[in-house]
Known about the structure:
The chain has six helices and nine strands. By secondary structure, the protein is α/β, with parallel strands linked by helices. The protein has a seven-stranded mixed β-sheet. The chain is globular, with a radius of gyration of 16 Å.
Amino acid sequence: MRAASTWPGLTAVILAGGGGTRLGGRDKPMLAVAGVPMLDRVLGALGGADLRIVVGPVRAGLPAGVRTVREEPPGGGPAAATAAGLALIPSADRAALVGVFAADLPHLTGEAVAVLVDAVTAGVDGAVFVDERGKRQLLCGVWRVHALRAGVERLGDPVGKSMRAVFDGLGVAEVRWEGGGPAPYFDCDTDEDLRRADEQPARGPAAPGAAADGAAADGMSGDRSGVG
C-alpha cells in the first residue's frame, strides 16, 4: 500500500521524453547512477506527492499509481510535455501545486522538494532552485497549478517553445540549495555528467525497486529543449 501524501495538493510532473542525443540515443531516464535508474530516483524523491505523472514513452516497472502520458508530437519539447502533464490534472483550487522536474536529476530528494513547496508563499506563483551563478533551474521547481496552466495556455501551441516562455511574467521565488550533499538540480546530459554523479555521495533510493513503495526518499533544471 502506498504511504500517505507528504505534500497534500501537490502533483508531480516528471519530464522523461526527449532523445538523449548526447548519450547516443540511450533512454536517459533509465540510465543508472549508483545502480539506480535516474527515473526511479526522481519518482522516489516525489513519493510524497498526491499524484505522479511521467511524460514520455511507456516504460515497464513504474510504481503503482504513477500515470504516463506522451507529449504530442513525441519530442515536442519541455513546454509541450508540461502541457501534456497538466492535461491530466483535474481543475484544482487555487491552493493546488504542481512540481515540474526533469527525469535526469539523480540527487533530487524529498528534502529538496519540501524546500520548494515551502517557498511557494503568498505573492508568488512558484519557486525554483538557482545555481551558484544565479541561473534558474526551470526543470526543478514547484508552481501553483492555475499559474502554470495560464503560462502554458498563453503560448498557444506549446510545441518547440521554451520553458522560459512558459514562466515569463510569473512571480518566481528563487531558492538556493543550502542542504547537505550534491545540488538536487544537477542534471545528466553527457557520459561525463553520469560519471560525476556516480562519484558524488548517493542520495535517494538505495536499490532499483526502492521507488515502488511510493515513500518519499530520505532527505529531496535549466531550460532545455528536451529531457530524456
